[in-house]
Amino acid sequence: MRTIREIHEEIERLSEERVELWHQLSTEYDPQIREQIRGIDTALDGLWDEQRALRARVRFGASDLVEVACGAVQVRSRRVGQHDPLGSLARRTRHGSCIARGRAEPARSGA
């Protein structure tokens, strides 16, 4: 597993490479350069996701604990019969993540 610093250094390196490619592309259009930029953009997206996940893991702990906390809140909410199934302790964000008692984790695809 890489550290946050290693991921950040890779992001910096790829970002600098992308800037150079954009400068080349601004002087003359080249489809190969455009494809290289798209590849770098995809790699950067993955690195940013990896960095966010690592930061969340460091800050909030293992994702298993978060899923258990979200599930427990949902069960309690159903028992109480609240209209809002997640109540005030947890809620679903527009991106599908579950936030419960200060912990955040992406929702599973089946949710």
Description:
With 111 residues, the chain is mostly helical. It has 2 domains: 4-60; 63-106. It is 65% helix and 10% strand. It has helices at residues 4-27, 31-60, 63-80; strands at 90-92, 97-100, 103-106.
Give a brief description:
The protein has 111 residues and is mainly α.
Query: What's the number of domains?
Result: 2
Please work out how many helical segments DSSP would assign.
3
The CA-CA distance between the termini, in Å, is: 28 Å
Percent helix: 55-70%
State the shape.
elongated
Uncertain segments are 85-95
Structural class: mainly alpha
Largest sheet descriptor: 3 strands, antiparallel
The fraction of residues in strands falls at 5-15%
| E-strand count | 3
Element order: H for helix, E for strand? HHHEEE
Rg calc: 20 Å
Strand order of the largest sheet: 1-2-3
Question: What would the average pLDDT be, to the nearest integer?
Answer: 76
Task: Please specify the SSE layout and strand pairing.
Elements: H1 4-27, H2 31-60, H3 63-80, E1 90-92, E2 97-100, E3 103-106
Antiparallel strand pairs: 1-2, 2-3
